[in-house]
Amino acid sequence: MTIRGISLAIFGFAVLLICAAEPEAVRFGPNGAFQLEHSKDDFGVRSHGVVERIGAGSRMYPLPQSDFATYARLRPKDVAINPLSATANHYEREETIGPNQVEGDKLWFGKSFYDGEGMRGVGAFGYFDAATRKYELFSPPAVACCEVSAILVEPEVVWLGLDQFGEDISTFPGGLVRWDRRTHAVWKYDVEFVVTGIAREGESLRLTTTEGYALLNGDRIDRFRVQTGRDGRKTSTPIARFPPPPSTHY
To answer: Is the pLDDT of residue 115 over 70?
Structure first.
């Protein structure tokens, strides 16, 4: 078995343990006729598109996949490191629908993809519109290099947590992005932790990570480590920075 095959097998087994139960249905659109699809691939149960219920049948709207021309234009540095010849001139990718949020008749989401061992992709976010039955995707330079780890859609802005899912089957921090819905202007905050969740908390944003959380207020980020004591109580301790993420690379 190849290194990629062993890595995928190990990761796939772990994902299947986590995803033993069918993911909760995400419905949207008129009468909830549209639903986020779930099916198995090399990485376990993931979402590859949107399904519309039509009478006794259904119609699938697959997530559009990036092509090599788009990859070369938006990720030129990666092309130099990982040329097309590395995969026998095949542009291998498996982009899926990751973190998502329903807003009216739209399903907003960020793309997820594996970025290693010959596989690659183009980071993007956007929505599927039930009214038009079409996808609208955006790939600003700050996002194109990463998958989306978390999303929060607000009336004026979209917040995105970013990470890179690489060869040691681990995710590495890619930052936090604020995207203006009217102008499409992008602000990026460089953070040393993977943002796994984003929520509004008063005037601040609460950024969840594996070891705790951070609060973003303006340009200030306050970090807190969360620990569980022997009595089961959780305590939050202010810290300067989170430690580097663990690696499973040998």
So the answer is: yes
